[in-house]
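Study this:
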Amino acid sequence: MRPIDRGDSPRDEDYGNYRDAFPDLVSRLGFFCSYCERRIVTYLAVEHVQPKTLPQYEHLVGRWDNFLLGCVNCNSTKLNRDVVFDELLLPDRDNTSHAYRYIEDGTVEVSDLLSADQAILAEKTLWLTGLDKPISKIEDENGQFVAIDRVRQRKEVRLLAIMSRNDLEELDSESLKRHVVELALAHGYFSIWMTVFSEDVEMRKRFVSAFPGTATDCFDATALATVSPRPNNGLDGASKV
């Protein structure tokens, strides 16, 4: 899960209509779901980290620090589940790149580098967003299934990333490197590209730089996820990983 930094609010006050924050969020974070990392243009929406439908969070409806971007699957699975920051790992608060492994079969697993307590938090986050499910059957407002198989999509992007890596091994050119980065941005799944190119320091650095809003302080000089907790960014419940 890509760790992100949305930055300070572009407004001095809360948003009167939270939907107005969408262009600001896309400008900062790109057209990517903050949880599953897919590139989504049509059905991407402003996501309330702590759900606006729960009474205790009504005051956060227009709050910048409570916004991320979410796809239909992650939003619908998360829905009105309570989000207690100290009990979860979240991409705007923790180094979620260090917390998960993206496996060849398309599944997402908790990293074995985490402590037992951190692993529990990571598992809860997978459950919260449905990323632990092999297939997410989510209906949109019209009762239609939308992008129901995230596992299959992760496998497809992984295959594309592997082919791109192989092409670069045959022809190491600046133009091809730029093309591979553009492919990654066009499809999303930052963590899969970082996994496939785990032995290529230059390309990892390019991905970290190219994906807007990536929290660079979560990576070391070789663009590997740091083991130490993410530097505290002042948000509640931050820096657990």
